[in-house]
Specification:
This protein is mainly alpha-helical. 47% of the residues lie in helices and 6% in strands. It folds into three domains: 65 residues, no CATH class; 80 residues, no CATH class; 147 residues, no CATH class. The strands form three sheets. Strands 1-2 form a two-stranded antiparallel ribbon. Strands 3-4 form a two-stranded antiparallel ribbon. The protein has a two-stranded antiparallel sheet with strand order 5-6. It is elongated.
């Protein structure tokens, strides 16, 4: 009996020891798991992209961006992150985080900013959601096509595919063979990403202009003296070049609309200048007004054959909804605005005051001593 009691006692003691050992092991495992989870959480949300130490000598600079290219797997992305100076965490932690965020296998191609202080979670979130770096190029209202091409040629890091193309070949590459390029692109700020080309931007700008022109034409006034959206685009380009002041655009368009209705010559200097091309040296002379070109609205009736610049949305709206009134003439004042006149006598008096510097009426005298503001005039 004694032997049986001893065996039972030893069994109970061994069982207690085993249970105690298991408890210790479980507590240790829980502690390790808690430490691991805490470390993982700190890794996920702690800064991963180091800030460049100011004045540090020999310190490796972190690139401003990282590119994910087509065919890059998660391992390749991790290698690029390490090469870029992002040393936070182990690869396993990155993979666990990517799986938790449903980002593994879903990182999108593009260029991503590496900003000092960004965490692994934010980095993976941006790559998963395709929040790439965007660059800007602005096409300015009133620019001609040559200026537009120069702006795109200077845009970086835009890919340049049109440098060797003339205007006709460029329009053919855009899918619009035979179309004159002037005025066919909407002046706005366009966003693009690394890898996009100038043709990509031009396609978007061309489509935007077609849409804006269609919307303007749909909302045109019933009595507008224009036969087609093409004519509206041409008139809008003239309005755009004649004034930089938004509130004047409908008034300028009104003058030209009334001239068209009456069969008067438009006599607008920007069309003459456009017709001169590279021969224009900054001054318009009497001989320029009498030298016939397809764009000289002093020698040819009606609208010129094509737009002369890129009109913005406001100029398009003004062209198809000109302001009512009786003005048939305008001349530039010295503040960038214009004086509008209903008769040639009134107009000639305004020209005397603001252009010839003589015979100023009291109402104009305050402005007449200032230098001429840039801008052409409708003369007769």
């Amino acid at each position: 009996m004694t032997d049986g009691v001893d065996v039972a006692g030893r069994f109970k003691r061994a069982l207690k020891t085993t249970v105690l050992l298991l408890c210790v092991l479980l507590l240790a495992a829980a502690a390790v798991a808690g430490w691991g989870w805490s470390r993982y959480q700190r890794f996920a949300d702690a800064p991963a992209v180091p800030a460049q130490a100011e004045g540090a000598v020999g310190a490796a600079e972190v690139p401003a961006s990282l590119r994910i290219e087509r065919g890059d797997g998660f391992a390749a992305v991790l290698r690029k992150l390490r090469a870029a100076g992002v040393q936070a965490g182990h690869d396993l932690e990155w993979r666990l985080l990517a799986r938790q965020m449903d980002a593994a296998g879903r990182l999108k191609v593009g260029e991503y900013a590496l900003e000092p202080g960004m965490s692994p979670r934010i980095l993976l979130q941006r790559m998963r959601d395709g929040r790439v770096i965007h660059y800007r190029v602005t096409l300015v209202e009133g620019w001609n096509f040559r200026q537009l091409r120069a702006a795109l040629a200077a845009a970086d890091p835009l890919e340049h595919e049109t440098g060797e193309l003339d205007d006709a070949a460029l329009m053919a590459a855009l899918g619009h063979p035979g179309q004159h390029p002037e005025g066919r692109f909407l002046p706005e700020t366009y966003l693009y990403q690394r890898g996009d080309s100038d043709l990509d931007v031009l396609r978007r700008a061309h489509a935007a202009m077609e849409q804006a022109l269609a919307q303007a034409w749909e909302a045109r006034a019933a009595d507008v003296p224009l036969k087609s959206p093409e004519e509206a685009l041409v008139l809008a380009s003239i309005v755009e070049k004649e004034t930089g002041q938004a509130h004047e655009r409908p008034q300028i368009a009104g003058v030209f609309a009334r001239r068209l209705r009456k069969g008067m010559l438009l006599q607008t200097d920007p069309t003459v200048i456009y017709g001169l091309g590279s021969a224009y040296d900054g001054n318009i002379r009497k001989r320029d007004l009498t030298t016939d070109t397809p764009y000289n609205t002093y020698t040819r009736a009606g609208l010129p054959p094509t737009p002369i610049a890129m009109p913005g949305r406001a100029a398009l709206q003004a062209a198809v909804n000109p302001a009512a009134g009786d003005a048939l003439y305008f001349v530039a004042r010295n503040d960038g605005s214009h004086i509008f006149s209903a008769t040639y006598a009134e107009h000639d008096a305004a020209v005397d005051c603001y252009q010839r510097r003589r015979n100023c009426r009291a109402g104009h005298a305050a402005d007449a001593s200032a230098p001429d503001a840039p801008g052409p005039e409708a003369r007769r």
